[in-house]
Amino acid sequence: MMNQDNKRVVCFGEVLWDVMPTGRKPGGAPMNVAYHLRRLGIDSTVISRIGADPAGDGMRSFLNGIGISTALVQVDHHQATSEVLATIGSHNEVSYEIVAPVAWDFITTDPHSVKAVAQADAFVYGSLAVRSPQSRETLFELLRHARYRLFDVNIRPPHYNRETIERLLSTADAVKLNHHELLEISGWLGNRSDSEYAGAVLLQDRYGLAEIIVTKGEHGASYYTPSFRYDYPAVPVSVKDTIGSGDSFLAAFLAQKLRGESAESMLSFATTLGAYVTTQSGACPPYAATDLNRFMWEKYLS
User: Fold this and answer.
1) Which ranges of the chain would DSSP assign to H, the alpha helix?
2) SS3 261
3) Engineering a disulfide at 135: which of 30, 39, 47, 107 sits with its beta carbon 3.0 to 4.6 angstroms away?
4) Cβ–Cβ under 8 Å, residues 283 and 241
């Protein structure tokens, strides 16, 4: 792992097993983000819930093995640990069959979680885990204590609704979403064009967002603030699968932001790590600083 910084991030939401043709791999956007932050030298932890079952035991072992504390991972004696059927289709795009209910639908508030969020430099959360009333109310309570709120939009039909998405946007300091999600949400506000810029401006005006990060796959990424826009191209790679690439992008972006880096540095590093992860299998491949340095060196010399 890379050198440690004195920065802390708490991620909230689903932890699960991605069941793929090649076998089971640990996943869930919040856990993926925490994993990559840890790899990048940021102290990260996860607030989630697993079942009292072999799959939960396996997840706990995995988290402990990668240095992520399980102190805030609750155990449910009635609901199972989440397992998701992931299918890789044409153009290496991934589709998911997400079962409900599962343990992370019942995350509860406790003093330890509140304290962790209040002390963290950033609080990262998504939209999937708030499909259930229990986890939704827990997240809204924790948001009251966060210093910096980063909303990672993760629209998975039918596991979302407009009212909840808009409430989460209204409380966020920053939002990360892909191009399709941006057009869908801005469409709710009257955007009838395919203009990314028009959609971003609508979101800024409606929800008071200080930062918007838009990922666009092979077309790179863009970063918006009320005063400027910065675009960065994608890194061309031979894709193995896209599972977790957006999560690694977000982790790299946040790691650079917490270190006070520029918009160019944030997007450059984020697109590079996101590209690297697509060349590997699964959302959480092992890597070290030397692996990323070699990858960056090869890509920028090619």
Assistant:
1) 29-39, 54-65, 111-119, 133-143, 162-171, 179-188, 196-207, 245-258, 263-278, 289-301
2) coil
3) 107
4) no
302 residues of the chain, pLDDT tens digit each: 444 458 999 999 999 998 877 788 899 999 999 999 999 999 999 999 999 999 999 999 999 998 999 999 999 999 999 998 877 766 666 677 888 999 999 999 999 999 999 999 999 999 999 999 999 999 999 999 999 999 999 998 899 999 999 999 999 999 999 999 999 999 999 998 989 999 999 999 999 999 999 999 889 999 999 999 999 999 999 998 888 899 999 999 999 999 999 999 999 999 999 999 999 988 889 999 899 989 988 876 66
176, 250 contact by CB (below 8 A)? yes
CA distance 32 to 5: 19
Is residue 226 reached through a cis peptide bond, with omega within 30 degrees of 0 on the bond before it? no
Which sign does the torsion angle of CA 7, 30, 146, 262 carry? positive
CA gap 200, 197 in Å, rounded: 5
Supply the Cα-derived Rg of the chain in whole angstroms: 18
CA 137 and chain centroid, separation: 20
Amino acid identity for residue 182 in this structure: L
> What does pTM read for this prediction?
0.94
Q: How many CB atoms lie within 10 A of CB 245?
A: 26
- Exposed, middle or buried, 140 (CB in 10 Å: 0-12/13-18/19+)? middle
At 231, which amino acid appears?
D
